[in-house]
Amino acid sequence: MKVVCFTFNAFSENTYLLIDEATRQCAIVDPGCYDAQEQQTLRRYVEENQLQVTLLLNTHAHIDHVLGNAFVLQTWPGTPYLLHPLDLPTLNAVPLYAGPYGFAGYQPAEPSGELAAGQTVRFGDTELQVRFTPGHSAGHVVFYHAPSQALIGGDVLFQQSIGRTDLPGGNHATLIRSIETELLTLPDATTVYPGHGPTTTIGAERRSNPFLVN
């Protein structure tokens, strides 16, 4: 599996394109593309690399991670869109504050399916394990690719930091528990691809993340 990162919108959100290199099928995770230039950047990469978009996934539904959902579904019709059901209220709240946040052109999109803890999602020959990681939001999940030890982590764990917990559905103790049980149980060599900022590894954060080291 090849991981391609695009950083979009005013929140500098990381949108991930996960590519099954054998079949050229791909999954788009947390599309944050909002304006026409950002949308064209994503579409051009898919077209120039002759990829087939077969899956749209959200780790969670805060505005910066869902701005491009409608664009993806309009550009590649019929693509399944999966979200954990506990984050549906978070998704449904986005239109209420999109304008004041400077995203008056936001277009809602409805999931066509659900994500659940322990579920396996597939595109091409690639399989991702869904791990349930609430704390930043009520229905947050992460996606783990065991063969390459890659974790698409959303806003749970960052380089030397963790996700904020002061938004609706957030809870600090729950987030720490999610990190301890669902992330720190992965191999130290696991690469974490976070929703913001640079990549890190499980081992590096286990050793020196100030929010995790007692």
From TrEMBL:
- Its domain of life reads Bacteria
The cofactor required is:
Zn(2+)
| PANTHER family referenced in this protein's UniProt entry, alphabetically | HYDROXYACYLGLUTATHIONE HYDROLASE GLOC
Matches recorded under InterPro entries: MBL_Glyoxalase_II, Metallo-B-lactamas, RibonucZ/Hydroxyglut_hydro
Residues forming the Metallo-beta-lactamase domain are: 12-196
| Keywords, in A-Z order | Hydrolase, Metal-binding, Zinc
Q: Which organism is it from?
A: Hymenobacter saemangeumensis
Provide the leader sequence positions.
none
> What is the protein name for this chain?
MBL fold metallo-hydrolase
Which stretches of sequence are listed as region Disordered? 192-214
